[in-house]
Amino acid sequence: MLPHDGLLQLTPEGLYCPAAAAWIDPWRPVPRALITHAHADHARAGCGEYWATAVSEGILRQRLGATINLVPVDYGALHRIGEARVSFHSAGHVLGSAQIRLEAAGESWLVSGDYKRDADPSCAPFEPVTADVFITEATFGLPIYRWSPGAVVARQIQQWWQGAPERASILFCYAFGKAQRVLAELAALGIDDEILLHGAVETLMQPYREAGVPLPPTQPLSALERRDDLAGRLVIAPPSAHRSVWMKRFKEPQTAFVSGWMAVRGARRRRGYERGFVLSDHADWNGLLASVKDSGARQVYVTHGSSDVLARYLREVEGINAEPLAGPFSADEDAAHGA
Amino acid sequence: MQRFAELIERLEHSRGNNSRVQALVDYFEQTPGATAAWALQVLLGGARRRLITGRRLRQICLEAMPLPEWLFDDCYAQVGDSAETIALLWHQHVDADWGPNADQPLQVWMEELLPAAAALSDDAQAEAVRRLWHGLSPQQLLVANKLLTGGLRVGVAQGLVVKALSRFSGLDEALLQHRLMGGFAPSAAALAALLAPSDGDDTGEVPSRPYPFFLASPLQELLPGDAGDWQAEWKWDGIRGQLIRRSGQGFLWSRGEELLHEAFPELISAAAALPDGTVIDGEVIVWTADADRPAPFNVLQRRLGRKKPGSKLLAECPAAFVAYDLLELGGEDWRPRPLHQRRTALESLIQQLPETADAPGAGRLRLSERLTLDTWEQLEPLRQQARNAGAEGLMLKALDSPYLNGRKRGHWWKHKLDPHTLDAVLLYAQAGSGRRANLFTDYTFGLWNGNGVLVSFAKAYSGLDDGEITALDRWIRAHTTERFGPVRAVEPLQVFELAFEGIQRSTRHKSGIAVRFPRISRWRRDKPAGEADTLATALALLEQAP
């Protein structure tokens, strides 16, 4: 539970800052929303006024409507909203993602949104920020999760794909964020083969290209003739297309899923993919601990996933005041977006 | 070890039997005999000895890591496998450099490194295990841990391994199956013998070696031809076995290829009455000399629970071998001959046995009765008599059928009695392991007792499809009333039809009864919990039981 007199409070609409008269990533329509990033479980339609990073504006308008009332902000710029001073800081999660820092009456709070600390060629790097109180996500809040660098995973993906020249390789990635990160990582390896995209991924390519992210050449799968040979081609599709009629287009493809959850064998077998590549846009265990320490916060609240585990560890082992924050923060990353 | 771990990974990653067989063939082609022999042993499930417990490995892992025990438990709950949990945590703790142990072949791991670590104790053992772990990738560490705990299950059926060996060696699959019966010793010499060219007749080469069992398939539709072309027998509810008399010795094998000598000394004595060079397929069952039908399975279980039965148990629960088929006679492999020939020879063989009561094992070898089945109309009434005869159903075997390997459809059919069913209420749930980790898939069910209280009587794990499992998992999370460690009590609202084979008294459950092979046959979403079955209904089934 958040303190009654704290800078942020939990209302049925979500995290609320009375000083700014604003909600952060509200679950329902509110007059003023501060948006950490454009994933569907953080940015919802119907709010009166949106504050979000300028980099995420294109995607937000695409998803929430071109005519939303949106105030674009730059990373690090300080804004006065009501009685509060508010700044957005890069979260390294996806293009335009931010942590939001609020300060009023001599107290500062930091809301992490979703974040990761690993290098990602498709978005700005995570920025450590200090605050008195830190609200952090803990999607992967267990020490079994430790990520390898994206370049290493991209190399594995390349070997998997190019090792099967006689089959089409379908790589399932969340359409916004993960798909573009994988493409950017492949480009960083020097790959310039044309990669085919499912429509849901294609839609998000333009904002990334406009942001200047180096990407390999891509082509929507729908632009190909039905009889075109797909052997040896890499196709990127969202998980919702797995085992759907869309798959009928392929003759005996090999399939793989790119997600942090793939670190555990049972999770991979349950989903029925041949291969799992472990790549996440969330912080791993060490990343979560480092961010809590970097924040210098005297009080930590933990949301999402293994929130009670991380909070207990912080309390009992690290000696940091921490507690889980209950609420309809999406716990199921699969349903929502890129893990 | 590195290459074996790669093989395991490749097998996990490949879809379809062909690519799995290919992975195995590639491995055998590139691997020297002694190492390949150990790999084969592991693949066949023959390296299941537990050298160190999972609990001890967990302790060894935690001692070297600044993690509290509860956090390990939380990780385990997510992973559902302690060897894998340790592999992931160790990788977190230590940066894996390529260590020297990863390069050691599987043979060295199995013959030296792992037994050496197992032979130590306390701190010395912990240190040795951690030295083994050092420099292994998470996948290699997982395989090493599984080999230490004897829990490595590769998920490749023996048939596929044999297919790969056949493709690799050019030998017939049936020959390889036969040569593998009775166990395989992991040595280069044994592998060479397994893959040696055949002169066509391996019969009796190794006196103890059983033949691969021929298995029946469930009958689903009316069979072709006349009922008279088929041999009908009871399907006995014991354990399938093979009784061998060769080189003046007797051997009794279970279908699981375990030797049952010590557990069933009276059957080994009985085998002494058989002429040398005889192999009989049949059922091990408890059957007292003067009874008209065998004792139920739970009586046999008392025998199976003992490695070496005492004289009291031997007297109370005497075993019999009910002969189904003759596989070898006079040292000749009879399996290719038609069933009617084998049956005639089996009948005369059993009838010639000494009947005197003082003969060792007298009456312990019985012939499986051939039932009258002249027309298909008689089939169903016959099946309905199975329970009275103390059997679990009928067997139908084509009279002209050879004795084949494994489960080949067409010749042998089993036609079991319909199971009993009860509608029961879900009371508790627990998460599964492996691919069911994190999903509530282990369920406990209850029936209403006379006081309107639900009492537990069965646990069931199977019968729901993936969609139902997911839906029920969600329901359980939302309707948990209490938690006892990993077990959740749920609101008693969901009714399931449970099917099971038999029922007996037991102190395992609150209800005082236990059922055999319980599984979920239907989710009765239509049925309110108040209309679920009562303990009285279950007890009435108990009365009917033979």
Give the arrangement of secondary structure elements:
The complex is a heterodimer of chains A (339) and B (546).
Chain A: E1 9-11, E2 14-17, E3 22-24, E4 32-34, E5 49-53, H1 57-64, E6 70-73, E7 78-81, E8 84-90, E9 98-104, E10 107-111, E11 133-137, H2 150-162, E12 169-172, H3 178-188, E13 195-197, H4 199-202, H5 205-210, E14 218-220, E15 234-237, E16 254-258, H6 265-271, E17 275-277, H7 285-295, E18 299-303, H8 307-316, E19 321-324, H9 333-336
Parallel strand pairs in A: 3-4, 4-5, 5-6, 10-11, 11-18, 12-15, 12-16, 13-14, 13-15, 16-17, 18-19
Antiparallel strand pairs in A: 1-2, 2-3, 7-8, 8-9, 9-10
Chain B: H1 2-13, H2 17-30, H3 33-43, H4 54-63, H5 69-79, H6 82-93, H7 100-103, H8 106-119, H9 122-133, H10 138-149, H11 158-169, H12 173-180, H13 188-194, E1 214-215, E2 217-218, E3 230-236, E4 239-246, E5 249-254, H14 265-271, E6 278-286, H15 297-304, H16 311-316, E7 319-329, E8 332-333, H17 339-351, E9 365-367, H18 379-384, H19 386-389, E10 391-398, E11 406-407, E12 412-416, E13 420-431, E14 440-448, E15 454-460, H20 466-478, E16 480-484, E17 487-490, E18 495-500, E19 502-505, E20 513-516, E21 519-523, H21 535-544
Parallel strand pairs in B: 1-11, 2-12, 7-9
Antiparallel strand pairs in B: 3-10, 4-5, 4-6, 6-7, 7-8, 10-12, 13-14, 13-17, 13-18, 14-15, 16-17, 18-21, 19-20
